[in-house]
Structures are given as structure tokens and as C-alpha cells.
Known about the structure:
Blueprint: H1 13-19, H2 26-40, E1 45-46, H3 54-58, E2 66-70, H4 95-107, H5 120-123, E3 127-131, E4 136-137, H6 149-163, E5 168-172, H7 173-177, E6 189-193, H8 210-220
Parallel strand pairs: 2-3, 2-5, 5-6
Antiparallel strand pairs: 1-4
Amino acid sequence: MFVDIDTPLNIDKSWLSHLEPEFDKPYLKALETFLLEEKQAGHKIYPQSSDVFNALNHTPFDQVKVVILGQDPYHGPGQAHGLSFSVQKGVKVPPSLKNIYKELSTDIEGFKTPDHGDLTQWADQGVLLLNATLTVRAKTAGSHQKRGWEMFTDKIITELSEKRTGLIFILWGAYAQKKIALIATSKHTVITAPHPSPFSAYTGFFGSKPFSKTNAQLIMQGESPINWQIS
């Protein structure tokens, strides 16, 4: 059991072969206790339990091509669904994602801005949309940081770095770029830029062309490019 005492651990088998031992370690036991206490205290936790591991379930270990690292889930109603930078359909597109779409419109020829913020289509093509922290208390940004999730997601990055080759890591902002220390840059590509947040997008995110750079690298490696268009 994890996250919700009524919900069994539900992670894609390709990931469990790499991560299952983590769930017996003290740090994740402590995290599970903390999440249970949050729930018992009456706090709403996002995303819902069935969506916490969505990034892993939509992008199996052997199918990962690209990793886009976020920090926290969104903490507003109906937003978070387990994919970094993504929100569920019917929810207002957040400012950072609006800027991502703006960059896409100049970076990828013919890209048309979608009317929603659900990035599941990227995940299903091999783009691992991974947040460093996988849960958050409603209306309280950063409330589940430094409780153990970061150790778990660092393990995900480390496993990908060690067991795979030719991955592309897109790291936006100082927080994500600290994860370079976990990545074997001799066999993987790292693309960096300022965060797409309105506070930093104009300091170098716009014009950084991460999406066309990613596709160029994939093609050079003999792999199919990502179709960044969201329908």
C-alpha cells in the first residue's frame, strides 16, 4: 500500500523492476506515514492517489526518450494529474505552460496552441513528465517537499542514467539543473534553459528551442522525433 491506505501500489511493471526495493526503505516508509497523517488530519492531497505515479505508468522504463523535470504538482483543484507541467482538461492552462506553448509556437513549425493543458500525448510518446515531488497539500505550494519524494525521484533519474543510453534531459531552471549531478552526460544529452515561469521566461527560456533541439538529437540517434502538437 502507498499514498492511500485503500489503494494498492499501482506502478507499471517495467518501473517496479527498478524501484520496488525502494518501498521497503525507511525514507519511503516515513513518507507513507506522513501522507497518512496528512489525510487523517483532513488535508486534501493532490493529485488523487490513482494519479500519483501517472508519469511512470504512461511512459514505461524502456520507452523513455525524453525527461522533462518539474518540481511540485499544482496545488489547485482539478489541476494535478501526475505529469509535470500538465493539467487536466477543462482546467485553466497555468502561466508556465502558456509560456511553454508560446515557445513551441516559434520553435516547431506549424504548432498550434491547444485549448487545454493535458500533456498526456507527450507522455505516451516517451516523454517522462516527472516532478521531483509527487504530492502536495491543497493550496499549499511545496508542502510535501523534503519528505522523501526527492530521494525516490532521484532514484528514477539515476536508474535511467545508468541503465539507458541516449536519453534527452530537459532541465528548466536552477532547481532542475541541480539534477545534472545524477546524469551521465557522456551518454545522455542535457538541454538547459531558464524556467518557463513568467518570472524567468524572458531571461532565456524564450528562444531556447528545446523542442526542435530534442527532435534533432533523436533523429541523429536514429529514433523517431516527438510530435509536440497537442490535439
